Amino acid sequence: MSILVGLGTRLVVQGITGREGEFHTRASIVYGTTVVAGTRPGKGGQFAIDGTVPIFDTVAAAVREAGANTSVIYIPAAGAPDAILEAVEAGIKTIVCITEGIPALDMIPVVEAVRRADARLIGPNCPGVTSPGQAKVGIIPASIHKPCRAGVVSRSGTLTYEAVQAMTDAGIGQSTCVGIGGDPIIGTTFLDVLKLFRDDPDTDAIVMIGEIGGSAEEEAAAFAAEHLRGVPMAAFIAGRTAPPGRRMGHAGAIISGGLGTAAEKIAALEAAGIRVADSPTQLPRLLLEAGYRP
Amino acid sequence: MKIQEADAKSLMLAQGLPVPAWEVARTPQEVRAAAERFLAAGAGRVVVKAQVLVGGRGKAGGVKLAGTPAEAEEVGSRIIGMDIKGITVRKVLVAAAAEIVKEYYLGAILDRVSRRIVLMASAEGGVEIEEVARQNPEAIHRVAADPQLGLLAFQARGLGLAIGLRDPVLNPFVAIARGLYATMTANDADLVEVNPLAVVAESGPDGKVRQRLVCLDAKITLDDSGLARHRNHEALRDLDEEDPADARARDLGINFIHLEGTIGCMVNGAGLAMTTMDLVKHYGGEPANFLDVGGGARHETVRDAMELILADPNVKAILVNIFGGITRGDEVAAGLIEARAKQARAVPMVVRIVGTNAAEAARLLREANLETAASLDEAAEKAVALAKGASR
What's this model's pTM, rounded to 2 decimal places? Predict the structure, then answer.
């Protein structure tokens, strides 16, 4: 079954004619994802991706005429919040926003609108979601995956690829890999994804990849201690050597006022019984030691 | 991006907040002249405050009072040029010293958990809020602004009442709290802080003493992602306090932070870049920088990044770690080889490239005789060994 995206996904790509949008849509299609539509206002009626994907002027039209139920957004930061709201208004319930560099305050009313519509937003500033063997929504490279029953949730992009590759190399396949994004204000948190994995009959183990900044890892650890006892888990936290007060690439990766350090997060995870790897390559071993049998 | 107190005060003033007049001085003579003006206008004393972006300047001796122009000049000569946490003070703020009756704290922050702007207030003003949070967390009161309507008057009033404010300063507090919120949204700030927000006693022209609520300090952090839509904000960047390498990286569009170690790192992706630094440390080395070349980096970017790393004389070894998704390994390899051919000093390098076009990258690296590694751990270990070998 997997979570968020799967065989039932009917994807609309917002910004399908842009460089990123087109490149990654091709990869999604090659992976087997059902891409039913793209949007590009003013080009409705035309086709993208070598004439295979119909373009609509609006997300509403893509929902109405192509039956889209999931959206992915490759629109620059200035237009991305509006694109999310358009998808919400059109009734899309799973929205994945890849866009990086959206001013954080822009996201406050947007996540509220998503919440009120009972929709789910992944990102922004995230690599997307892949359910191996079923659907790939976003920019996570297809080659690193192997379908199986370990869920992965991460704030990062390439670091996730590193961890997933190590898992695949060790024979540990994935149910779904979710990149939740590196911004301070994101639609879906670690906690939300842990709940989805807990309720997913096809996920038996969880790998969590966090980083400095905020307290989302601590909240996830508290939830895991209470609700995920018996589920094999392993974690990695990036930024042990990050200097305080500096934004480490991701807008959300900053230690401020002495809070949000890697040490605090590692302590919280270990207190919840989750082992934390010193290197992402150790994650498969820790998962096996936690009792997971792929 | 952090900005100086004087600039933060300008942004607050623009939103109608009560900020007493100030002047910025760069020499003791300018401090004296500013002090003369404030004293002539009726101030009993002036305050001279170092303008630096690091906290704790008061404890470091960067904030002093003066009662005469001569004393102000003398105080100014001590503060200008002093070192506060590694930063040389180049300018000071001069203002009339207020007659403080009571100090409060008021701040607006971007709260990740509630995903709202949260206003925080405390009756324990004038001390670091982090300290209050540790020692006496109940003393901090919070209210989350409505995500669509903003900070409502009744919310601000509740906050004011919670910290013990009553007539005649309660309504002014409501206006100040909403002004802080407005300052935040108007400037794409992720932090706007007034500490202290003070009740001060002021003598009016009729000789009567009145109490008034004023913003005596100002701290603002701007969201880097919002800078592009505020054309005036780039001028607020204090280049004096920025590491020149960081400034150069910004011009090149490379995510770079200069650090104190000996191993230069070049990585694609912020999380992986942090992890690479962590592994360098784990294997006994110290990273010289954080560097994310970004997704889909071309060989020119790689060449520029290499120049940035090599410009640091402390760098004894370089570690390149690329996990190609949209970034093509062969592009990176070509950029490395190009940079290698031009580099002024011989610094050992270990390269690890996996993912997209890794085989082609491996061929290029082999032909150029560059040291390679298969895994991230191996690469970090090798880089640490190379740095140690080079420094012997």
Answer: 0.94
